[in-house]
Design goal:
By secondary structure, the chain is of the alpha+beta class. It has four helices and eight strands, in the order H-H-E-E-H-H-E-E-E-E-E-E. Strands 2-1-5-4-3-6-8-7 form an eight-stranded antiparallel beta sheet, with helices on both faces. The longest helix has 14 residues. It starts with a helix and ends with a strand.
């Protein structure tokens, strides 16, 4: 998580949670997010329902060319990635595992750019689960926000169990519990620093 905005949001979330697995949603102060607020979002899942946007920053809505409030998070992804995204988000919410997703976004005119999504779990509330996230763009294409992104494609996924970070220099990860390979796809994992990176999109012949 080297990108400045990602690092700052992660540090803010980490300070709020203290010794807990995750902070509570009511502890998030929008003013504290400053210039990162337009790029942040909150997802909510009730019961067995799929995760949906509860809040989405103005820049995120501009990138995707629509108001995202109450929209399913999986709707931002290409169809073959949606089941994997649902598993990742639900695992983040229930097991309090932080997730970073590197992906490629494709616009309505076929243009492409790279994004980083970071998902940070929040404490569960009765029958509801939440997470806070941020979207950052790798570079700033001139056409972004005028040519809407219509779908994302997973490139790599990095999973971190934040409960193990207080006294460990090497973060504990468990990718196989979240994103198991399907019969048609092989996901190759490799260690990069303190993260386990899962490389997506490699199709078995």
């Amino acid at each position: 998580m080297r990108h400045d905005d990602i690092g700052r949001l992660f540090a803010y979330w980490d300070r709020l949670r203290g010794p807990r697995a995750a902070p509570e949603r009511r502890e998030i102060v929008p003013a504290a997010l400053g210039a990162r607020l337009p790029d942040t979002f909150i997802l909510q899942s009730s019961g067995s329902g799929e995760p949906r946007f509860r809040l989405a920053g103005t820049r995120i809505c501009a990138i995707y060319g629509k108001e995202l409030g109450r929209q399913p998070f999986a709707s931002l992804w290409q169809p073959k990635d949606r089941n994997s995204i649902l598993r990742l988000v639900k695992n983040c919410m229930t097991s309090k595992t932080a997730v970073q997703i590197d992906c490629e976004g494709r616009s309505a005119r076929g243009r492409k750019t790279l994004f980083k999504f970071v998902l940070l779990p929040l404490a569960s509330e009765a029958n509801e689960r939440h997470l806070m996230g941020i979207i950052t763009v790798v570079g700033r294409p001139f056409w972004l926000e005028s040519d809407a992104i219509v779908e994302n494609h997973i490139q790599t996924v990095s999973l971190v169990d934040p409960r193990q970070t207080r006294h460990e220099t090497d973060l504990v990860v468990a990718p196989e519990a979240v994103l198991p390979p399907s019969a048609s796809r092989t996901l190759v994992s490799r260690k990069v620093g303190h993260l386990r990176v899962i490389e997506g999109g490699r199709i078995k012949s």
